[in-house]
Amino acid sequence: MAASKVPVGQPLFSVLGIPVHVSIWHLLTLLFFFQSSFQNGIEFGLAMLFAASASVFLHEMGHALTSRHFGLQPTVVLTGFGGFTSHQPARRPRDEFIVVAAGPTMNFLLAGGLFALAAGVLSAEADMGFLGQLLSQIIFLNIFWGIYNLLPIMPLDGGQLLRVTLRKFIKKSLNADRWTHRVGLVLGALMAVFFAVQFHSVFGAVLLGLAAFENYRALQNVNEIDADYRADRPHPRVGELLTKAREAFEARDFESAMRYCHQARAEPELSPAEIRHTWHILAIAAASLGDLEDAIRFAERVPNSAEMAQVQATCLLSLAEPARIRVFLRSPAALLLTAERLEDLKAVVRTADA
Ligand SMILES: [Zn+2]
């Protein structure tokens, strides 16, 4: 799973600079699940426990390494129901998709790698020895964990992928979320029954049942937010985050200001004024930090703003790319520039043409 919750307490250890928290429930749940493995000997049982924990851990490292690649400061938490990776909200839906997909991908890669290893090492031996049995069970485990996590039920990875995808195709993000949770509610309930009947797994059924209930609650929440949005009442959490962002911005702590803005953007629905406000702070903060490309991208989201047009012009001047300046000069934003700034931009184009 990939989540935006922040764990409390000290991490147990760090891997590649990523802090890892381990709950006692992680070990206890694995013991419960793999108790039958101990029938094949204590070594086999312990090896399975270790392999299962490592599979869950590597899944989370898939999320953690990709989120760190995007600068989102991940933390891995191993819990009773597997694990999750908390990180700052992704800046772009594409980044979020990659971070979430990296977890199950890691399990499939691991299964594939172990399968190749098993085929290479064990093909000569006719019988399935200790190693053969262990490898086949770990391969099965990773395929199962990858597929289970891809079920399109929030908060599983599949549910998050569904949400990012629907938000891309459904214009209003609240409606995308509504469909995500409808699917989660129905499929969660069906899968709970399936796990109970097919796998006789009370644990699995309870987990999926809880997920279905969470989706039901989230659906109610979406409806409340939608009612606020229609009545143009501000979203309290967004208001709080934007206040923090403005305070950080005024204290010239641009990184914190941007973080609060990204957190606000991750909230289910922002009023048009809040959206404008968020892009505004992001654009100026990014420009102040020298992230010119980001600043331009953010400023473009606020049409009809003289200040945002100035931000775009300043960044384009620093980048000094005549082709882009030419495109910008033809955009409506150019009409909002001061005569002086307009002249600066035209000068760059003229120099390039000469
Ligand atoms: Zn995951």
Along the chain, the helix and strand elements come as: EEEHHEEHHHHHHHHHHHH
* Bound small-molecule species: zinc ion
User: What is the 3D shape?
Assistant: elongated
Structural class: mainly alpha
Fraction of residues in H or I helices? 55-70%
Taking all residues together, what is the mean pLDDT? 87
Low-confidence stretches at least 5 residues in length (pLDDT < 50)? none
How far the N terminus sits from the C terminus, by CA atoms, comes to 56 Å
Nearest-angstrom radius of gyration? 25 Å
Instruction: Going across the biggest sheet, name each strand in turn.
Output: 1-5-4-3-2
What is the count of distinct domains? 4
Percent of residues in beta strands? 5-15%
DSSP helical segment count: 14
Q: How many strands, which pairing sense, and closed or not: the largest β-sheet?
A: 5 strands, mixed
Short recap of the structure:
The chain is mainly alpha-helical and 354 residues long. The protein contains 14 helices and five strands. Helices cover 69% and strands 6% of the residues.
What's the SSE blueprint?
Layout: E1 2-3, E2 13-15, E3 18-22, H1 24-33, H2 42-69, E4 75-79, E5 82-86, H3 93-122, H4 130-149, H5 157-169, H6 173-198, H7 202-230, H8 236-250, H9 254-265, H10 272-288, H11 292-300, H12 306-319, H13 322-329, H14 339-353
Helix pairs in contact: 2-3, 2-4, 3-4, 3-5, 5-6, 6-7, 8-9, 8-10, 9-10, 10-11, 11-12, 12-14, 13-14
The chain binds zinc ion.
